[in-house]
């Protein structure tokens, strides 16, 4: 996997934006390198409505050369022909993913050395490490590990890494300086007054 895909990794649901397809296109056009559809929380889509939305997002990602990842939904990832899937520690073991994903991007969340050492990584393409800073975007994110915790995990793996958790324009460079190949953001972009300006700033 090309680690540059992780440089600016946006995670959002269909309800994260006022005008989701329009706002996502703005973000992709401005330079977001990877997008994860994480359809969890309030006002989420299901069934055919979710698949239709995922297919629209896939088309946008293809247009702007943005990698398209589905969070923890094997059937949706297959149906939408996503570029990959991201799973957490409490989701399925990466080894249990169908053969369909052998040529796809498989991402795994890790928050500490114990999780890293106990995870099966033979099929994993990259690690999402965090939460680095305190975050309100994900209720079960766990305790912040700080940039020292991030650096420690980065130094214990040869896999590409993306920092996640409470990352903003003010602190993102600390994650890159700690060795992460990229940053995952949610509210920094979904809550931005000017999406294009924010994306540009996070790519500096």
TrEMBL record:
Catalytic activity: 4-methyl-5-(2-phosphooxyethyl)-thiazole + 4-amino-2-methyl-5-(diphosphooxymethyl)pyrimidine + H(+) = thiamine phosphate + diphosphate; 2-(2-carboxy-4-methylthiazol-5-yl)ethyl phosphate + 4-amino-2-methyl-5-(diphosphooxymethyl)pyrimidine + 2 H(+) = thiamine phosphate + CO2 + diphosphate; 2-[(2R,5Z)-2-carboxy-4-methylthiazol-5(2H)-ylidene]ethyl phosphate + 4-amino-2-methyl-5-(diphosphooxymethyl)pyrimidine + 2 H(+) = thiamine phosphate + CO2 + diphosphate
Residues given in the record as 2-[(2R,5Z)-2-carboxy-4-methylthiazol-5(2H)-ylidene]ethyl phosphate binding sites: 135-137, 166, 186-187
Entry note: cofactor: Binds 1 Mg(2+) ion per subunit.
Domain Thiamine phosphate synthase/TenI: 8-189
Cofactors demanded by this protein: Mg(2+)
GO biological process, one term: thiamine biosynthetic process
Alphabetized GO MF terms: magnesium ion binding; thiamine-phosphate diphosphorylase activity
Family annotation (NCBIfam families): thiE (TIGR00693)
Function: Condenses 4-methyl-5-(beta-hydroxyethyl)thiazole monophosphate (THZ-P) and 2-methyl-4-amino-5-hydroxymethyl pyrimidine pyrophosphate (HMP-PP) to form thiamine monophosphate (TMP).
Name assigned to this protein: Thiamine-phosphate synthase
Native species: Jeotgalicoccus halotolerans
């Amino acid at each position: 996997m090309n680690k540059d895909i992780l440089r600016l990794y946006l995670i959002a649901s269909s309800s994260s934006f006022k005008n989701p397809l329009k706002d996502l296109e703005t973000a992709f056009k401005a330079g977001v390198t990877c997008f994860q559809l994480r359809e969890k929380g309030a006002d989420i889509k299901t069934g055919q409505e979710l698949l239709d939305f995922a297919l629209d997002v896939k088309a946008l990602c293809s247009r702007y050369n943005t990698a398209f990842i589905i969070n923890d939904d094997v059937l949706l990832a297959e149906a939408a022909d996503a570029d990959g899937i991201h799973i957490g520690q409490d989701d399925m073991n990466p080894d249990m993913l169908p053969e369909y994903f052998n040529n796809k991007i498989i991402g795994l969340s890790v928050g500490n050395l114990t999780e890293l050492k106990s995870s099966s990584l033979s099929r994993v393409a990259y690690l999402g490490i965090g939460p680095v800073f305190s975050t309100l975007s994900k209720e079960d994110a766990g305790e912040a590990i700080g940039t020292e915790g991030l650096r420690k995990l980065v130094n214990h793996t040869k896999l590409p890494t993306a920092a996640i958790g409470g990352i903003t324009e003010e602190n993102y460079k600390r994650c890159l300086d700690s060795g992460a190949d990229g940053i995952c953001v949610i509210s920094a972009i979904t809550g931005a007054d000017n999406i294009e300006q924010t994306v540009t700033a996070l790519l500096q």
